[in-house]
Amino acid sequence: MQGSPRCIAAVGTVYASTGPFVEVLKLEGRFDMSEAAHPRTLFEKLWDNHVVHAEEGRQTILYIDLHLVHEVTSPQAFEGLRLAGRQVRRPELTIATADHNVPTSDRSLPILDPISKQQIDTLSNNCKEFGVKYYDLNDVRQGIVHVIGPEMGYTQPGMTIVCGDSHTSTHGAFGALAFGIGTSEVEHVLATQTLLQYKPKTLELRVDGQVGRGVTAKDIVLYLIGQISTSGGTGYCVEYTGEAIRALTMENRMTVCNMSIEAGARAGMIAPDEVTYEYLKGREFVPADFDAAVAKWRKLPSDEGATYDKSLVYDAANIAPQITWGTNPGQVTSVDKKVPMPAEFSDETEQKTTALALEYMGLNGGESLTDIKLDRVFIGSCTNARIEDLRAAAAVAKGHKVAGSVSAMVVPGSGQVKKQAEEEGLDQVFKEAGFDWREAGCSMCLAMNPDKLDPGERCASTSNRNFEGRQGKGGRTHLVSPEMAAAAAVAGHFVDVREWN
Ligand SMILES: CC(C)[C@H](C(=O)O)[C@@H](O)C(=O)O
Ligand code: SF4
């Protein structure tokens, strides 16, 4: 690389000017740079392959291959470009959709909430003005940004992928370096197709052996967060390895990587393999010369002898279906356990946070998880609203009825997931069981749209955050797998899905 980056101040954002470097990088062909003197991890290869400029002790300028945009974190970024008289540097590497604010009821009706309507209209107008591909609400390809990227084959191994959204880690399931960025960084990427980043350390989370019946990818990741806590991944990029991870489908792998951020990690990734290539084959936006792309992707997995800054090993046989009992995803335990009591923790701070969480959740501690009664069930979100999730939930719900005391909804992650589910008759299974069948969007994952819990309502949710008020003010969230959620909807309380038939 020649020269050093210049910085241009513009409306409070400092752009690293990368003009010549980006072109050099393109010409060199980044994958050919993956041969190095020492064995490298998947993360190190991805990082090295995207360095535009690095200086000791300073942030590195990384080239970004794919930028995903949604309505919540993009308005000020586009406004910044407009004020600075700039264009989007690589519109063809940028795609947008509306997901957080969209109502999941009848799409032909107007959006009643004025703020939601304004955000969605603003995104549509910005995309038009800046030449960015926008999947609008009438497009079957609209959906949660982390569901539609992989579904259309935009997400590919070896890429750097960013989005103004913390669950961008989902895309790491393909062996990509994918992470969330803030709105000022969204502007930076729009303007330059690069990003300034400090290099994270590497953490290997290895899960050996095989999980038992009824134990899902969601249970694996909730278990891991329970083990390392919501700060266990801070400062790290996680690589998930081991037999139990390799055995997962692509959609399951996305569920695992999705929640990396809930462990505090910068990103989470899984090395690509035949499962990855098979999933991508034939999707709309994969490289035209697919075999040549696969040949490059095969060089990505960590080299024999490569070392991580830290490695932790777990046994899949110890993982049972998980349920969160508290107000962060690390406050989680196995379905056959009891809600913990503050006194069970040795650390005084943890005793206090447990007491506060229990109070918010309306629990005393000591109750069996299977005795907890539910008011609502939400099957959806970028963690668990892909077709395999819906199939798994439908298989549990089939032939049963949702308990009279429960209101349950299924929200597909995208229009295409919805269509596929309808072709398979899953919508009928859900509707006959008494579930509400909705249009695609983030929905009750975060209550930025009409789908919300009422104060005090208790919900079994397949989403990824159980923070106070996350699903509506005063709402109480228990995170579970789609199978556990469907069984809870039928029973009216949590049940151990391993005993379901
Ligand atoms: C609205 C968005 C910025 C936010 C995120 O970054 O994750 C949301 O998707 C979430 O899940 O809380
Ligand atoms: S589904 Fe939930 S976690 Fe995923 S992007 Fe939407 S709000 Fe965030």
From TrEMBL:
Class of the enzyme per the UniProt entry, highest EC level: lyase
User: How does the cofactor attach, per the note?
Assistant: Binds 1 [4Fe-4S] cluster per subunit.
User: What SUPFAM superfamilies does the annotation carry?
Assistant: Aconitase iron-sulfur domain
Q: Which reaction does it catalyse?
A: (2R,3S)-3-isopropylmalate = (2S)-2-isopropylmalate
The answer to whether keyword Iron applies is yes
Top-level taxon in the UniProt lineage? Bacteria
GO annotation, biological process: L-leucine biosynthetic process
The EC number(s) given in the record are 4.2.1.33
| Listed cofactors | [4Fe-4S] cluster
**Which GO molecular function entries does the Swiss-Prot or TrEMBL record give?**
3-isopropylmalate dehydratase activity; 4 iron, 4 sulfur cluster binding; metal ion binding
Q: Which UniProt keywords apply?
A: 4Fe-4S, Amino-acid biosynthesis, Branched-chain amino acid biosynthesis, Iron, Iron-sulfur, Leucine biosynthesis, Lyase, Metal-binding
Please name one Pfam family that this protein belongs to.
Aconitase
| Similarity-based family | Belongs to the aconitase/IPM isomerase family. LeuC type 1 subfamily.
Q: How does it assemble?
A: Heterodimer of LeuC and LeuD.
Query: Which protein are we looking at?
Result: 3-isopropylmalate dehydratase large subunit
Q: What is the lineage of its organism?
A: Bacteria, Pseudomonadati, Planctomycetota, Planctomycetia, Pirellulales
